[in-house]
Amino acid sequence: MGKHALHAVVLLSGGLDSATTLAIARQEGFACHCLSFRYGQRHAVELAAAERVARHLGAVEHRIFTLDLAQFGGSALTGDLLVPKRQSAEEIGGEIPPTYVPARNTVFLSLALAWAETLHTGEIFLGVNALDYSGYPDCRPQYIAAFERMANLAIKAAVEGQWAVRIHTPLIHLTKAQIIARGLALGVDYSLTTSCYDPDPLGRACGHCDACLLRLKGFQECGMPDPAAYVPQ
Predict the structure, then answer these.
(1) Residue 213 pLDDT > 50, yes or no?
(2) CATH annotation of 7-221
(3) Measured between alpha carbons, how far is residue 65 from residues 11, 18, 38, 115, 233 in Å?
(4) What does the domain layout of the chain look like in residue ranges?
(5) DSSP 28
(6) Looking at 110-230, which runs of residues are DSSP E strands?
(7) What pTM did the predictor assign?
(8) Bridge partner residues of 155 (DSSP)
């Protein structure tokens, strides 16, 4: 990467999608500043995965921002609600599940926007997906387009015409299998990632939450085993 590479903020959860997004941003020549969040999530094991992924894929830096969305609750990921467990990905319905965290992507993107402006860039990468996903409203193309419009009205650099904000969502129209294939072609080591919403105390994936089932379905469609560690079934 040349010394004049354009900087970008990459939201990095430690999961399959965000790892692939970081690999894509690196391939496109961006100097990547990764941002993860400790927000009171029950699956905080993902933060160790994010650190592994950031090192593996050559991020310029990786910061973990702490805020406590668990104060508000309203989600199986931050409160006492149960994480839904199913037998197959086909059982995932069209309703918004209890693992939805109220306004999470809006909060995360707002903080990414603030950091990006201090880095003198409007480039932000986010690994949202609108095909093989759990139905979250803040993963849809309409939402991303609306946030980008708002961001360009919100920050000093955009209003003064220094640069425009661009929210890159390279995975948004891909299936999980397509995402995995893209990542493997870019050298992503998916054994470093974790996707489970309800891992055991050893950090092993449960195999039955929506995130696990969609991930397993993707690897199955790619004709290969998932390298992540799962609780014995």
Answers:
(1) yes
(2) 3.40.50.620
(3) 11, 16, 6, 11, 35
(4) 7-221
(5) T
(6) 123-125, 166-168
(7) 0.95
(8) none
